[in-house]
Specification:
By secondary structure, this protein is an all-alpha fold. 74% of the residues lie in helices and 0% in strands. The structure holds prephenic acid. Pfam families: CM_2.
Amino acid sequence: MTTTAQHTAASAPAAAAPSAAPAERTGARTPEAAELIGGARERIDALDDRIIGLVQERMAVSAVIQEARIGSGGRRVNLAREMEILSHYRDALGKPGTALAMTLLELCRGRV
Ligand SMILES: O=C(O)C(=O)C[C@]1(C(=O)O)C=C[C@@H](O)C=C1
């Protein structure tokens, strides 16, 4: 029987294999570029871990707010506040910022 992992490994392009040579793995055409990309990817992985941690922290703080509001007899969602957040992200990051804020709000809403 073929496992999912075997199937994926067999069908994935060689460039994606972890054991591939650095230049192949990064798409670079020189060892220097491969080295630079490898280092920058490590920084991106570290940044992504921090971003994920911040998102999780945001979710926890949002849950505290929602709990307090619902516990006091209010509604879970506060649309006026959501509009402020959408504007904030859009002002900082442009149109994709709005999409990012919507995803964050989706993650944060409805956790309590
Ligand atoms: O600020 C609030 O009132 C919240 O409930 C937090 C939050 C958010 O995650 O930013 C979540 C739900 C609301 O609809 C608006 C905003």
